[in-house]
Amino acid sequence: VTLVSGHSALNLSIECNTTTVTPLKQPIVFELEGFHVPPGYSSFLFVLALFNYMVVLMGNGVVVCVIIIDKNLHRPMFVMICHLVVCDLLGATAVLPRLMMHFLTGERRIAHIPAIAQAFSVHTYGVATQTLLGAMAYDRYIAVCEPLRYHAIMTSARLHSCCGLAWFVALLCIAVLFAFHMNTPLCGNIIKHVYCSNRAILRLACRSTPINNIYGLSMSWSVSTGIFIIIAFSYFRILQASVKRSNVDSGVRSKAFQTCTSHLVVYVLYEIASVIIIVSHRFASASQDIKKFFSILFIIIPPAINPIIYGLVSKELRSSIIKHFTKQVFHKK
Asked: Is the pLDDT of residue 53 over 90?
């Protein structure tokens, strides 16, 4: 009896292990864990998410339209702001519509291809924001430190090359990151997050993915450190140039401040959101919903606030928005 029982237990153990590591077959449908929504709060959270998304669309849409319409704003700084706006819209659109669906209908399922697309868009948004801010720092450095040669250096070709390089680096880094998904079998379908990400999907892999982990950490550290060095160097030189020239012209310092403030505020806001995400995951006692909220902080807050920062700090952009808005109001009357 003991032998038979032991043999049966061994077979049961083998069957359980086999079931656990059996790779899923296509079509794979994931289920997002999402937020725990108390009864009666779904509609309220849907309205909040919808309001946030409308603010993102309207704010960024106004900035892009005004820059396109006003020929006086067809300059490198505003062209780069347009690229940042596109990047913000990419990140917000990748997450907020599905989050609204989750609040409104309780739908948590997402197919494999849309899941990869969402994760790819979110990671591209994160890296492209940094690389574009790095390109913008270079533009501000040339504008303040080499004002007489600015137009000769920052030509149309160089401007588009800088923006294209920023997008290329971001897309290449993320494409390599997701190349590891191609031959990785998955043994689970429950994503313990609000949205799909590289790490959340690969946690469902049947085997460990050390290469992906090493590359992901190395890539994130390299991009963040590299962009920080570029921005720190640019603003150090800008500060030096402003102090030297302020002795001759008192308006130079204030002009440099106005020129660079919006860029610096956007970068600092993005970094603060990133630090909050990292710190929140270090507190084991914090609720999962709080951690999930902080994890989407850099997707829902900066895209909504950035257009306000551009409009408040940039006098030219603010004046152009007011002028076109006033013109539309009087035209309707």
From this structure: yes
Cβ within 8 Å of residue 22, ≥6 positions away: 187
Structure tokens that stand for 97 in this block = 């519509």
- Judge if pTM exceeds 0.85: no
Query: What's the domain count of the chain?
Result: 1
In a domain, 94, yes or no: yes
**DSSP bridge pairs for 32:** 191
Residues contacting 61, CB < 8 A, separation 6+: none
In the chain, which ranges are continuous DSSP H helix? Answer: 2-21, 42-69, 76-105, 112-145, 150-153, 156-179, 198-202, 210-246, 251-280, 288-295, 297-300, 302-313, 315-332
Instruction: Report the distance separating Cα 291 and Cα 277, nearest Å.
Output: 7
CA angle (138 as vertex; 218, 89 as ends), nearest 5: 70
Cα–Cα dist 279/258, whole Å: 32
Backbone φ/ψ region at 40: left (φ over 0), alpha (ψ -120 to 50), beta:
left
- Round to whole Å and give the CA distance between 192 and 187: 14
Q: Are strands 29-32 and 190-191 parallel, antiparallel or unpaired?
A: parallel
Q: Quick check: 255 pLDDT over 70?
A: no
Give the CATH number for residue 39. 1.20.1070.10
Classify residue 82: in a domain, yes or no.
yes
CA–CA separation, 241 and 294 (whole Å): 38
Burial class, 19, CB count within 10 angstroms (exposed 0-12 / middle 13-18 / buried 19+): exposed
Q: Which residues contact 316 (CB under 8 A, 6 or more apart)?
A: 72, 73
The domain in which residue 189 lies consists of 29-332
* Phi and psi, residue 190, nearest 5°: -100, 110
Q: What is the pLDDT of residues 100-117, one digit of tens each?
A: 988 888 888 888 889 999
